[in-house]
């Protein structure tokens, strides 16, 4: 069954619609994600471009990391990051955006399948998910 997710920032200024199933859902431990999102671990979903109705750029802030093709976009009013673009360029939406718009819970169909770049981790996570030391599990 194809899902539709209507998501928004904390203040409602930025709204997005996401349809279908993600290409991936995982926890990323790479230093680049930690730097871009100021987080020890990034829980994210990656989507085919045609499955995400992205907001008009004029409604967003844009931040790019120095020297890398990694971008994040969000609401200039409340500051909430709505999505990013990393390799391979697809929109990625953090798990917490879906939690915020789903009563604090990540929809079960968006559950992460693995840990990526676990070799770069700054904290150990004891769960049953596969732990890929690099990005090879998703072709990076």
TrEMBL record:
| Keywords carried by this UniProt record | Lyase, Metal-binding, Zinc
- CENP-V/GFA domain boundaries: 5-119
UniProt GO MF annotations? carbon-sulfur lyase activity; metal ion binding
Q: Please name the PROSITE patterns in this protein's record.
A: CENP_V_GFA
What family is it from?
Belongs to the Gfa family.
What the entry lists under PANTHER family is as follows:
CENP-V_GFA DOMAIN-CONTAINING PROTEIN-RELATED, GFA DOMAIN-CONTAINING PROTEIN
Q: In its UniProt entry, what is this protein called?
A: CENP-V/GFA domain-containing protein
- Native source organism of the sequence: Salinisphaera orenii MK-B5
């Amino acid at each position: 069954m194809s899902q539709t997710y209507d998501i928004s920032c904390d203040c409602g200024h930025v709204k997005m619609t996401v349809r279908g199933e993600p290409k991936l859902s995982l926890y990323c431990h790479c230093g680049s994600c930690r730097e871009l999102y100021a987080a020890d671990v990034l829980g994210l979903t990656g989507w085919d471009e045609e499955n995400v109705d992205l907001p008009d750029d004029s409604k967003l802030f844009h931040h790019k990391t120095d020297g890398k093709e990694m971008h994040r976009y969000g609401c200039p009013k409340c500051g909430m990051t709505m999505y990013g673009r990393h390799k391979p360029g697809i929109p990625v939406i953090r798990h917490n955006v879906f939690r915020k718009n789903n009563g604090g819970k990540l929809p079960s169909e968006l559950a992460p399948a693995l840990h990526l770049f676990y070799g770069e981790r700054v904290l150990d996570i004891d769960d049953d998910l596969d732990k890929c030391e690099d990005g090879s599990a998703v072709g990076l």
